[in-house]
C-alpha cells in the first residue's frame, strides 16, 4: 500500500493516558516536502498524536518509521536528533532565557541545514530587534515566532506545529502563516495541527481529519468538499447549501 | 571596634555557608529536588580530604583536586543510576531516598572513620592573620575561605550565564519537560547538574575539614545551615545565596558575642524572622 521509503509512516498508532485510550489505530503517510494539516475538534487526539510522534508519550511496540528508521519507543531527544522538531502548544518558551538564547538552545543537536540565527531573523525580522529581551517579554505573536524559530534552529527534516494560531489575533495568525511557505521553500517538511481549518487548508498539501482518536478523512485539500470536511470534523452533516463546493472555497 | 570585628567574622563565615548552600540551591533549581543527604556529602568530602592529605600524605593541592574529582564522579553516577529513577511528579520518593542515603553515609563513615572528631591541619595558615588599622585582625584562613567562596560563585555565574551548558541548565530549571524536545538528554543534563553541585560540595567539605572539627554526624546541621542560607537569600538566586550565607553568618557571630550558647539559635531566629517578613527570600528569582 505504501512504499517502504516513505518519509513518515505511521501504522495503527494507539495511545493511552492511563486506562483512557486517546488514539485508535491511526494510519498516516507523508512524503518529504509535504505540508500536512491535521485538523479536528478539541479532544480528537491531534496533540496526543504529536506527543507520541516526538516521544513525549511512550509508544511501545508502535510502528512509526521516519526517514527509513523505526522511531517508535525511542526517547524524545533521539527522535529530535533524527530530525523531528516540535513547536509545542502554548509555545513553552524558556522564561529565564533571552530571545536569542531561546533560539540558540534549539540548535543543540548540531544538525547541518539551512537554518541559523541569521536565517531565523530573516524569516522573522521582528525578533532581531528584540533578541536580548526576555523570551516572555514579547507579544503572543512574537513569542510564537520564537517558538517556531527555536524548533527550526535544529534544522529538522520534519517540523511539527501544535496549534500555532491558538490565542492569537487574525492579523497575527496571518503573519505567522506567511512564514509557512518560506519554511517549506527551504526544504523543511511540516505537519501542522490546527483548529483554524481555513488557515490549515490554505497552506497544506495534504490534510487529515481526526475524530475521537480515529482518522475520519484524508486527502488533498483541493479534492475535499466542504461537506466531507464538516462531516469528518463534527461527525454529522452540515445543514447548509452548496456543500459540494471545494474546501478551498471556505477561505 | 569589637563589633566591627564581629561583623567581619560573620561576613567571612557567611562565605562558607554560601558554599554549603550553593550546591543545594543548584540541585533544587535545576531539578526541583531537595537532597536531604547534602550535609552528609559535605562531611564525606571532608573525610576524603582527611584520607588523602592526612592519612595518605598527599600534597593538599593534589588532595583538593582529587576530592573534587571523586565527588564529581559520585554525583554524576549517583544521579544517573539512583536519583533519576525516583524523580517524578511526586516529590516524596527523592526525599525518602536521600534521607536513606543520609543514614547510610553517616553510619558508613562512622564504621570507617570512627566517631572521633577530626580536623585537617592547614599548617601555618591556621594561625596566620592580617592586621588592619584600628586594632582589627582578620584570620588568613577565614579570609581565604571567603575568597574561594566568591570564586566558586563567580565560576558558577560564568557557567550559568555564559556557556551553552549553563543555558541548558537554566532551560531545564524553567521547563524540564521541554529539554528533550531541544535534543537534550534529560538524564544526562540532570547528572551534569548534580556533578557540578557535587564539585561545589567538595570545596565546601574541604573548607569544613580545614576550618573546624567534624565527625560522621556533622552533616544534618550543615544541611540546616545550607537550607537557611538558601531560603534567606531566595530560591534560585546564586548571589542571593551569598547574601543568605552572610546574613546567617553575621547573625550567628553576633549571637555568639552576646552569649556563647546563643550562636546557633541566633541564626535560626533571624532565619525565622526573614521567613515571616519576606518568605520569598531577599533575592527571589523563582516562584512557587
Automatic annotation (TrEMBL), chain A:
User: What is a biological process (GO) this protein takes part in?
Assistant: L-amino acid transport
Q: Which GO terms of the molecular function aspect are on file?
A: ATP binding; ATP hydrolysis activity; branched-chain amino acid transmembrane transporter activity
Q: Which InterPro entries does its entry note? A: AAA+_ATPase, ABC_transporter-like_ATP-bd, ABC_transporter-like_CS, BCAA_Transport_ATP-bd_LivF, P-loop_NTPase
Gene3D superfamilies per UniProt: P-loop containing nucleotide triphosphate hydrolases
ABC transporter domain span: 8-237
* Keywords attached to this entry: Amino-acid transport, ATP-binding, Nucleotide-binding, Transport
Q: Would the keyword Kinase turn up in this protein's UniProt record?
A: no
Q: Which Pfam families does its entry note?
A: ABC_tran
Listed CDD domains: ABC_TM1139_LivF_branched
Q: Does the keyword Phosphoprotein apply?
A: no
Q: Which family does it belong to?
A: Belongs to the ABC transporter superfamily.
Recorded protein name is: High-affinity branched-chain amino acid ABC transporter ATP-binding protein
Amino acid at each position: 500500500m505504501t512504499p517502504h521509503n516513505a518519509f513518515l509512516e505511521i501504522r495503527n498508532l494507539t495511545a493511552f493516558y492511563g486506562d483512557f485510550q486517546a488514539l485508535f489505530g491511526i494510519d498516516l503517510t507523508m512524503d518529504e516536502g509535504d505540508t500536512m494539516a491535521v485538523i479536528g475538534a478539541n479532544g480528537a487526539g491531534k496533540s496526543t498524536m504529536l506527543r507520541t510522534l516526538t516521544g513525549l508519550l511512550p509508544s511501545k511496540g508502535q510502528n512509526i518509521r521516519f526517514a527509513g528508521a523505526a522511531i517508535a519507543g525511542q526517547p524524545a531527544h533521539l527522535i529530535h536528533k533524527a530530525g523531528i522538531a516540535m513547536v509545542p502548544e502554548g509555545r513553552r518558551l524558556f522564561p529565564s532565557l533571552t530571545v536569542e538564547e531561546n533560539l540558540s538552545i534549539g540548535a543543540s543537536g548540531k544538525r547541518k541545514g539551512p537554518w541559523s540565527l541569521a536565517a531565523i531573523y530573516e524569516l522573522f525580522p521582528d525578533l532581531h530587534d528584540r533578541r536580548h529581551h526576555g523570551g516572555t517579554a514579547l507579544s503572543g505573536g512574537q513569542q510564537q515566532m520564537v517558538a517556531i524559530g527555536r524548533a527550526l534552529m535544529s534544522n529538522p527534516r520534519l517540523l511539527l506545529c501544535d496549534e500555532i494560531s491558538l490565542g492569537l489575533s487574525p492579523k497575527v495568525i496571518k503573519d505567522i502563516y506567511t512564514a509557512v511557505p518560506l519554511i517549506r521553500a527551504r526544504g523543511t517538511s511540516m505537519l501542522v495541527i490546527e483548529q483554524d481549518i481555513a488557515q490549515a487548508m490554505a497552506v497544506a498539501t495534504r490534510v487529515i481529519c481526526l475524530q475521537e482518536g480515529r482518522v475520519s478523512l484524508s486527502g488533498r485539500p483541493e479534492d475535499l468538499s466542504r461537506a466531507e470536511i464538516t462531516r469528518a470534523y463534527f461527525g454529522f452533516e452540515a445543514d447548509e447549501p452548496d456543500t459540494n463546493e471545494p474546501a478551498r472555497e471556505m477561505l | 571596634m569589637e563589633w566591627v570585628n564581629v561583623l567581619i567574622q560573620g561576613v567571612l563565615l557567611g562565605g562558607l555557608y554560601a558554599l554549603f548552600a550553593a550546591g543545594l540551591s543548584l540541585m533544587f533549581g535545576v531539578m526541583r529536588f531537595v537532597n536531604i543527604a547534602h550535609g552528609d556529602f559535605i562531611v564525606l568530602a571532608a573525610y576524603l580530604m582527611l584520607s588523602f592529605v592526612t592519612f595518605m600524605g598527599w600534597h593538599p593541592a593534589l588532595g583538593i583536586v582529587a576530592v573534587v574529582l571523586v565527588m564529581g564522579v559520585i554525583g554524576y553516577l549517583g544521579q544517573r543510576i539512583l536519583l533519576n529513577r525516583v524523580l517524578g511528579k511526586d516529590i516524596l520518593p527523592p526525599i525518602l531516598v536521600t534521607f536513606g542515603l543520609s543514614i547510610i553515609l553517616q553510619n558508613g563513615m562512622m564504621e570507617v572513620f570512627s566517631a572521633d572528631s577530626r580536623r585537617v591541619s592547614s599548617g601555618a595558615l591556621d594561625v596566620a592573620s592580617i592586621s588592619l588599622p584600628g586594632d582589627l585582625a582578620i584570620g588568613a584562613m577565614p579570609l581565604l575561605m571567603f575568597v574561594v567562596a566568591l570564586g566558586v560563585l563567580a565560576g558558577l555565574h560564568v557557567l550559568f550565564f555564559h556557556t551553552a551548558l549553563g543555558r541548558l541548565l537554566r532551560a531545564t530549571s524553567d521547563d524540564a519537560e521541554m529539554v528533550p524536545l531541544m535534543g537534550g538528554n534529560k538524564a544526562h543534563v540532570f547528572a551534569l547538574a548534580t556533578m557540578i553541585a557535587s564539585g561545589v560540595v567538595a570545596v565546601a567539605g574541604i573548607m569544613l575539614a580545614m576550618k573546624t572539627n567534624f565527625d560522621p554526624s556533622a552533616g544534618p546541621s550543615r544541611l540546616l545551615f545550607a537550607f537557611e542560607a538558601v531560603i534567606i537569600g531566595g530560591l534560585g538566586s546564586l548571589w542571593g545565596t551569598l547574601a543568605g550565607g552572610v546574613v546567617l553568618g553575621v547573625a550567628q557571630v553576633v549571637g555568639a558575642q552576646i552569649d556563647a550558647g546563643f550562636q546557633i539559635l541566633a541564626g535560626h531566629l533571624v532565619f525565622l524572622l526573614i521567613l515571616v517578613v519576606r518568605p520569598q527570600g531577599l533575592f527571589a528569582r523563582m516562584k512557587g
